[in-house]
């Protein structure tokens, strides 16, 4: 690997750059994440915004290693990670102004990781002025990844074996739809509204891991993912993976997703018809202004 792999700003990463990115993430997982899985001391786990918002030594050390590698590879890029933003929240605002930004979620699904559940991942998103253009969703347990960029289809890759395409489901009527929703992160008022609507769908749950939720969506095993907690390290990569696997990813009010958006609901679905059915079903989350507009 060379010390500098400049990304052409008129297009996503080259195949060589994407390979270098994947290899960097795999090395960080081997060095900093997997040795700590089911091997954390009590002092290795702390909290951030609340008792269920955990951070571990694996998060800190993996983010530091990935950030160092990315800065060498892309010296002119803005590199930010979830834990860096936790320490300095103003960093998030810099993403939408950056011509090239790379966003790191070093251990997505930290609650699962800290409790010994093998359902966590590493997320890398590349953005241009806040618009996602590349996403990597890596599973350290299986040592495989979903990767997508705005110029090529979503595909599943592994250490051994060729990449194969990933494709979203065919969607369907509301009563047939399965998906993931971050219900516990909503306000009580939103939860009460949504609770009345859930019986109209086939199945709605959460994996407590956006990385795997978007991986499952991109491979067609569920029909949608919806979230009102819009941390870019959780969702920017998933937006690209969904769109390039044939799906639709927009804010519930119809806006294109951008990392600058911090309020509202992001809905990623199998196709336009499915997205529209879900938007209409959950339109109450948009409030009175939407009712008047409709």
UniProtKB/TrEMBL annotation:
Species this protein is from: Roseovarius gaetbuli
Protein name: Inositol-1-monophosphatase
Any one GO molecular-function label of the UniProt entry: metal ion binding
Family as reported in the entry's similarity comment: Belongs to the inositol monophosphatase superfamily.
InterPro entries: Inositol_monophosphatase-like
E.C. code: 3.1.3.25
Annotated residues for binding of Mg(2+): 82, 105, 108, 234
Alphabetically ordered keywords of this record: Hydrolase, Magnesium, Metal-binding
């Amino acid at each position: 690997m060379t010390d500098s792999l400049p990304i052409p700003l008129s297009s996503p990463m080259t195949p060589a750059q994407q390979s270098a990115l994947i290899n960097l993430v795999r090395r960080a997982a081997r060095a900093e994440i997997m040795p700590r899985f089911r091997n954390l001391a009590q002092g290795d786990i702390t909290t951030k915004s609340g008792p269920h918002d955990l951070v571990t030594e694996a998060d800190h050390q993996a983010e530091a290693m990935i950030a160092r590698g990315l800065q060498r590879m892309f010296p002119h890029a803005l590199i930010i990670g979830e834990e860096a933003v936790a320490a300095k929240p103003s960093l998030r605002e810099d993403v939408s102004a950056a011509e090239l930004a790379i966003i790191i979620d070093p251990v997505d699904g930290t609650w699962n990781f800290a409790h010994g559940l093998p359902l966590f991942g590493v997320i890398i998103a590349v953005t241009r002025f806040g618009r996602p253009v590349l996403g990597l969703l890596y599973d350290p347990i299986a040592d495989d990844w979903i990767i997508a960029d705005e110029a090529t289809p979503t595909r599943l890759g592994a250490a051994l074996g060729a990449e194969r395409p990933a494709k979203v489901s065919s969607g369907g009527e509301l009563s047939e739809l399965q998906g993931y929703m971050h219900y516990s992160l909503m306000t009580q008022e939103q939860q009460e509204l949504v609770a009345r609507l859930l019986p109209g769908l086939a199945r709605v749950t959460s994996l407590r891991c956006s990385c795997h939720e978007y991986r499952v969506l991109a491979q067609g095993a569920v029909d949608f993912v919806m979230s009102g907690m819009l941390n870019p390290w959780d969702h920017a990569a998933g937006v690209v993976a969904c769109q390039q696997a044939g799906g639709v990813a927009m804010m519930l009010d119809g806006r294109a997703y951008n990392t600058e958006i911090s309020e509202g609901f992001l809905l990623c679905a199998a196709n336009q018809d499915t997205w529209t059915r879900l938007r209409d079903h959950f339109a109450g989350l948009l409030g009175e202004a939407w009712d008047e507009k409709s």
